[in-house]
Amino acid sequence: MVSPHSSSPAPTPYAQLLSHLGRIHKLETIAQLLGWDEQVNLPKGSADLRAEQHAVLAETIHAAASDPELGALIARLAEGKGAAGDALSAEERLVVREAQRDYERATKLPVAFVRAKAAQSSVGFHAWAKARAEDDFASYAPVLERNLELAREEAAYLGWGGDPCTSASGEGGSRAYDYMIDKHDPGLSAAVIEGLFGELRAGLVPLAREISENDDGRAKAARARLRGFSINAQREFLDEVTRRLGFDYEHGRIDVSLHPFCAGTGADIRMTTRFNEDEPLDSLFSAIHETGHGLYEQGLPLAHHATALGKAAGMGVHESQSRLWENQVGRSRAFWAFFEPRFREKFSGPLRGVSSEELYLAVNAVEPTLIRVDADEVTYNLHIILRFEIERQLFSGALKVGDLPEAWAALSRELLGLEPKNDREGVLQDVHWSDGAFGYFPSYCLGNMIAAQLWEAVRAEEPEIEADFAHGDFGRLLAWLRKNVHAAGKRHDALDLTQRVTGKPLSPAPLLRYLRERYLPLYS
Amino acid sequence: MVSPHSSSPAPTPYAQLLSHLGRIHKLETIAQLLGWDEQVNLPKGSADLRAEQHAVLAETIHAAASDPELGALIARLAEGKGAAGDALSAEERLVVREAQRDYERATKLPVAFVRAKAAQSSVGFHAWAKARAEDDFASYAPVLERNLELAREEAAYLGWGGDPCTSASGEGGSRAYDYMIDKHDPGLSAAVIEGLFGELRAGLVPLAREISENDDGRAKAARARLRGFSINAQREFLDEVTRRLGFDYEHGRIDVSLHPFCAGTGADIRMTTRFNEDEPLDSLFSAIHETGHGLYEQGLPLAHHATALGKAAGMGVHESQSRLWENQVGRSRAFWAFFEPRFREKFSGPLRGVSSEELYLAVNAVEPTLIRVDADEVTYNLHIILRFEIERQLFSGALKVGDLPEAWAALSRELLGLEPKNDREGVLQDVHWSDGAFGYFPSYCLGNMIAAQLWEAVRAEEPEIEADFAHGDFGRLLAWLRKNVHAAGKRHDALDLTQRVTGKPLSPAPLLRYLRERYLPLYS
């Protein structure tokens, strides 16, 4: 007969906490896999089943994350004492604090609210898609109103606001927007971002204008010449590039999806890209971008994936990793010094007659556009500043939903020097708000700032780093990021981390210096 | 604020049961997807994470399947009454009865037993792999002893035996073996199978001998000539074949794995095959086999996937579907009359100089081998009869584990006319017993019998069916199977279903007639 294991001492409350968090984490990795599979593999007709699978798993995760037993453990550990009354270590206290934050998010929202939000998310997506297709902002406006209302309610439930029933105007809105920002980037607030973006805008608008005025069209022409790149050869090239950058294919893979993304946690990172014979740089840079995300995930300490010690610091830091590899590394002369001969070997046909300088210009083509997702790395930030400005005003009540199209057009003129002909080129272009994802856009630009500041720091510490790139060696950069950024997990928020690693507060100055250094020589 | 939905009447107990079963079903489809992904996509280094994901999901499913609330609902509904005291319909009673069976499996096994079995499964696999690599049966014997003991305990917990502590000998063993058989094929027993296999053996051994004696080596030679078939072209051909057979790629896909299989439930069927340039028939027939499984799954009523009304009748019936498409259809002259020109178009190079008759012989090559997985469709059944005979004797106590190698060799001589040179070619060749999967092998042969009997019935009812094949039309066969087999779900067990659909009790006679009809003209 089965004999029970020999008795062992009862686990400590902290060990019990880890066990709860471990279960939640594993369920979350399964949800990630379902999401990845949905984008990569799911047969067309199986979407309903997948939705049901997502729902049942989400319920299971929610039940685990709001388990009263977990709450009791956290409450006990939050006093800072372990099993025998011994003090918890600083790391343990961090784990408990973050577990508490997650537990509150899981428990403070009433079930009816969560259901209403989920239902609205589906309604919102379809309303947005229809409004965009028909260029009909008026039909979408009520969805935005409702999503703003839900965002304020959510903030209020979590202690970031007054009565969730208050109207759209007044200070409550600002607190709610701070909540939305903090949700994506812990520690940040609208006031901090306003300061950073204001300074960035002051430097970036004239820089973009200078580039635009000096643009002789060569970069665009060079880019247009890159046609007919075999998908198989693109795949091989991309495999070599991502391997050399350090992506560990023993613990991850890359596949194809409509929109590139990176999913998974730690031991199994699934990235995607997309291929187009006439847009070889799009698939390559999408893959490098996702590799940046993947390297970060692979660098988080495996043993701690279930706790704050092994989780990403926030969206801004995550984005800093993807942008640093995509832009500072992937668009550099040193990178292309190494990869250009390989690129030409694979694509000798389509590259015939394209000079090295033309190729480099194609990689670094800058051209203002009305559409964020098509933007280059200079003007991209202006698209984000625009969205931040609008979100801030929506939440403060200074801007009414009905006035959005006009406000968008005015800001577009001011920042990009372009005016949308219709709302599809303006306020209807992004999906984010249809799902209530406010406070999400700023992370993209914060990521660019952090990337540039890290880049300045690593170049100062490791002056040979770009010489390494020219030899196809990216190990020194990766090791530096592993040590300074990845290994820290969630120990420090974006502001703290930047200060600690670079010795200076987060600032847009390094991004502006980097952009000037890279682009002015090409556009002058 | 969120307003609650308008009040609706409380769900009936039967509706509550469906809700429980729906949740369990969806979780099970997620587990299927994890398993599929593991074989198809999982990066090498991510196996530990996947094992943890499987474990946490299995725990979640077990908790749902053994939920006392579910047990109380089943107990209430098992009295045959609905909410208002009205009688449940026959279908509802079936759903309740099968739910009860599953609930008992989920609740009657003590947690310590389930853990011990899971641990033993891992130990068993590694012991088997090592023993096979080193041809060392003695090191594996204790694992088999233990697995037999666990099987008897499991049977006893579920009411199929006396004291789970009883020794290996005596009648208890037989009851336990009946349990193992019933687990895979509800309604079947060792006694029934013994009768069927005895009759099959009496006809099959002389048939295999006759084929062997008349073998002039042409089939083997023809098969050996099929070399250098481009993988891409194989993929395209296989796509065309499986589509024409009726596989719905809007609700499924085919990928590559080391061992072909079919996973998923209903709305998302994931099949696999494997490719080898020098074994084009292997990948093709693997794919057709899995398509047979897939068509069955796709034919189960979607609205009832979570209950017995929408689940497969058992392993034997499942295997009948894969074998019917693979053998009766895929190896027929009519099938090749249609597909040979297409096959030649895709593979004109490697097929140069191969006549139609040689190709057909290659498709239907028969040659006794010691290894089950390499066997043709004639001698395959003898491998199963051998394993059944051994399992039966192990469970009755007539055969000791230590005497297995000799018993295997003796049966191999009797049935196949071949004697293993070592245990790797004998008792160590299969993985099944290392995992405690006794009573599983017979399903393969039962599937062949059922397939042949269905085939006889459909040909009698639809005499034009093979003429359809020759025009590439398989719709009439699929419609017949949909109506007679797939739509029934678990309403009838293998014996009942066969009797209902063919009007006769299950018998090996149709299989023997089919094999004689197909193979004697080729080997005479």
TrEMBL record, chains A, B:
<keyword id="KW-0378">Hydrolase</keyword>
<keyword id="KW-0482">Metalloprotease</keyword>
<feature type="binding site">
    <location>
        <position position="293"/>
    </location>
    <ligand>
        <name>Zn(2+)</name>
    </ligand>
</feature>
<keyword id="KW-0479">Metal-binding</keyword>
<comment type="similarity">
    <text>Belongs to the peptidase M32 family.</text>
</comment>
<dbReference type="Pfam" id="PF02074">
    <property type="entry name" value="Peptidase_M32"/>
</dbReference>
<dbReference type="GO" id="GO:0006508">
    <property type="term" value="P:proteolysis"/>
</dbReference>
<dbReference type="InterPro" id="IPR001333">
    <property type="entry name" value="Peptidase_M32_Taq"/>
</dbReference>
<dbReference type="GO" id="GO:0004181">
    <property type="term" value="F:metallocarboxypeptidase activity"/>
</dbReference>
<dbReference type="GO" id="GO:0046872">
    <property type="term" value="F:metal ion binding"/>
</dbReference>
<feature type="active site" description="Proton donor/acceptor">
    <location>
        <position position="290"/>
    </location>
</feature>
<keyword id="KW-0645">Protease</keyword>
<keyword id="KW-0121">Carboxypeptidase</keyword>
<feature type="binding site">
    <location>
        <position position="319"/>
    </location>
    <ligand>
        <name>Zn(2+)</name>
    </ligand>
</feature>
<feature type="binding site">
    <location>
        <position position="289"/>
    </location>
    <ligand>
        <name>Zn(2+)</name>
    </ligand>
</feature>
<keyword id="KW-0862">Zinc</keyword>
<comment type="function">
    <text>Broad specificity carboxypetidase that releases amino acids sequentially from the C-terminus, including neutral, aromatic, polar and basic residues.</text>
</comment>
<protein>
    <recommendedName>
        <fullName>Metal-dependent carboxypeptidase</fullName>
        <ecNumber>3.4.17.19</ecNumber>
    </recommendedName>
</protein>
